[in-house]
Structure formats: structure tokens, C-alpha cells
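WARN no homologs supplied; continuing
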Amino acid sequence: MWYEFERAAEGAARDRARRAVLNAIGYEEGRPPPPRYDEYTHFWFFRGVVPFVIWFAKVCSMICFLLAMSMGSYAMILGLIMRGLDVRSHKIFFDYSPSTRGPLMPMGIIDLRSTKNAPWVNSCAESLNNSSPAEYACINDINEITYRVEGGQDGNDSKNGVLESGKRYFFELSLTLPESDVNKRLGVFMVKVELRSADWSLLALSKQHSLLPFESAYVSLFRKTTMMLPLASGILSEARTVTLHAFDQYKDVNDKKPVSFVEISLGVPKPATFPATVQAIQIQSAELRYGKEMNSIQAFFRNWHYFCAIIGTVALFWGYTLVALSILNHRSERHRWKTQPYANFFDSDEDESGDDARSVSQDRWMGADIEILDDDENDSGAWEPIESIEKKTKNENLDEGKNLVSEDDESVPSKQNKSRERDAITAPLENLGDYNTVSDDPLLAEMPHDKKECKHGYSDEKCRDDVELRMKRAQKKEEQHLADMVMKGWSFFFMMHLKLCVCIVV
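OK structure emitted
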């Protein structure tokens, strides 16, 4: 840093001297050549655009990496929070077949022990309506289920139960309703959920109402305009999802009759008041989810999953960003310290790390009783604090003020000295080179002069040799004086560096 400062100062001084010499000799520089726009464009592109594009690509890649880390970290945290919460889901396929028992009521039946994802049943299941007391064995995937009709005892034991004995579970129903005119006209509809055992015994019943979420025309227009691209491309559909909490804190009371089937039916109140085509609610898709009961934290994360995901991801992203910025800052400081170890020495006080560090460093170097001495001087015995020296100087000034006399009482030598100084100041320019003028000036008297008179009896050649010898001595003395000044300055600068390093280490 100091070497660069010296080179910059030397370059500035050299340019200034060159301009002064050219101005003195009357030299005029020619007009600069016209700028080349191809070079300017090349410089602007490769020194401005390309570095910016590279920097922007690095920033985008860093942001994507931090965002991916944030999402992965949130998924891991959510997995730890939801550990032990085994939530299972089954798709519901409603049956809209006409019924002879009354008005049309869409119905869906779920076998909790089945692993099928399609709505098909074995043909032997239809034989359950037969009144003959016979036993039918139906193969459902890999599980063999035995049914006994006419109130016979179920052949399954408690080992085939879906729910763990003594554990509490929840059941919830998710319905996706299209925003159709039929659903809007029907309004409120009833949802009935029944839990049944393997012999079709009713274990629990839940009834509640629901409806398509209301939305005004302006809100619907704004939402659809905002989501126009996903809706037009088919990524999203014009449907609303309704979630109903059917059962909570449920557990099997009778281990011999565990829950095996779930029956869901939808009904419209007073269907006779609607036309035949508008008597059933339209369902796009449905799903049944059940699992062990959640604690308050798990319930909050599950009910507000979108909100928690956004807040958690953003918080983790900002945390990772601060960590990355601190690491980059530390690496830049280490690189700067390796390449420019004394760069902080030339910084201003505003660039210090803190006010405390700045005050401590200033107290070290700006103490009232500190005096810097050269290495070649041994003034340990004659050292005095600066305050005592200032007091001593003030006392001497007071003593001198007491001994002052008026201008009328001045002594003759002082008057002669004043007159000589006045004559030297007002001397004409043509007398500056005279021997008398040189001898009167203490600075000019030290310098050798050609007009000094030779001693009596010396020849002209000897006088010239004497003058040349004196000039060489004076030149050598002046060079030695300048060298001493430079060495003292560098010695002082080196001592300041050394003491600063010692203070930093301490």
C-alpha cells in the first residue's frame, strides 16, 4: 500500500514537472486523435456487460442453492415434527347409480384393509345378498377375507384390525367440488360418514353439512384473471376443495369388531324442490385420510401447512444468506490481509470495526505523557513528560516577559542588529550576490561563494582550488544533511509501524 502511494506520488510529480517544462518552452500538444468506437464498444462489452452477466449468474445460482437448502431443511424439520404421525389416505369413488329406495344419494364405500386404487370388486361380493347360509371366500389382492352371512360370526380375528388397539385416531374427508351452476344452485348438502366392521356392523356415525365456498363475482373475476395461465394450460382446474373433520379421538372399543369399512353418502335436503337433474351434488374427486391423533404443534403445522411452509422457508433462507455473507466477508478480509497486510493502517477512523477498538487505539497513541524517541539516541536519563516541558516553557516565557524593556531603553547592540536585519530585508536585488550580503545572511554564509577574497600571498590558481575544495565540502555536507533527514523520517515511520504491531499483538 505504501509502495503504491509512493509510486502514485512520484507519477503525479513527474507529470506536473513535465507539464511545467512544456509550458515554459512554449510547446503545445496536438489535438488528440478521434476516438475509435469499435474499441470503446469492445471495452464496454468485455469490461461492463460480461462481468455483470457473470456476477448475475453467480448470484442467481447462489440464491437457487440457498433456496433449495432452505426447502430441504424445512422438509427435514417438518418430518421430525410429524414423526410418529402415520397418516394414510384412500380415494373415494362415489356411486351415482339410480336407486329404488328413494332419491338419488351418491355413495362411496372404502375397504380400509384393501390396497386397491381402482373401484372394482369381486363377483362373489354380490352373493352377500343371497339368503342361503353359506360361506363365501373372496380373494382381495393377497388378503383372504371370509364372510359369513345371516348374522354369522366374522371369521377374522383382531389381528386383522386396521387401527392399533388403544390408540386414538382421526378421520377427515376431503371433497373437491367443481364451480358448476348445479353446485351453486344446490348450496348446502349433507355428508354422512359411517364406520363399519367386517360384518357390516355400525361402529360410529358422523353427520355434518357443507357447501361450495361462496365467492362474489368481482373476487372470482380477479382470482381467475390472476390465475389465467395455469387455468388455461390445465395445470389448475376451476374447482374448490372442502375438508371436513369427521371423527376425532376415535379408538376401537371392541377388539373383536375393528373398523374395516367406511361408508360415505351425500344428500340434498328437500330434493323434491329441485329438478331431477339438480338433485345430486357434483363431486370431482374425494379422499379419506386417517391417522393417529396429533398434538397441538403437529395440528398447527398440518392445518396451516402452506403458511408454515412459506414462513419457515423464508426464515431459513435469510439465515443461510446471513451465514453465506459472513463467510464471504471473512474470506475477503483474509485475502485482503494476505495481499495488503498494511491496508488498514491507512484507513480512516470511520472504517474501524467499532468505537471501543477505535478509542483504545487512540488512547495508546495519543496519550498525554507519550514521547517518541529515535533508536540511535539514548535520552532515557533526560526524558521528561510533555506536560512538565510545557509548564517549563510557559515559565520561561513569563520570565522573559518580565525582563523585557521598552524601545527607548534598548541597548545599542540590539539596535545595530535590527538595523542590519532591516538593511538585509530591503537590500536591492543586484546586491544579493555581494560578499557583504552573503556574510550577513546566516544561511548564505554557510554556502561556498566564488567572490570570497583569497588569503594574502595566494595565487589565482590556488584560490580557485581552495574555492572548489570548499564547494565540494559544502556539497558533501548538504548531501549528508539530506540523507540524515530521509533516514530519520524512515526510522520514525518504521518505529511507528513496529509499535503499532506490538500494540495489536498485545
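The longest strand covers residues 239-250.
OK
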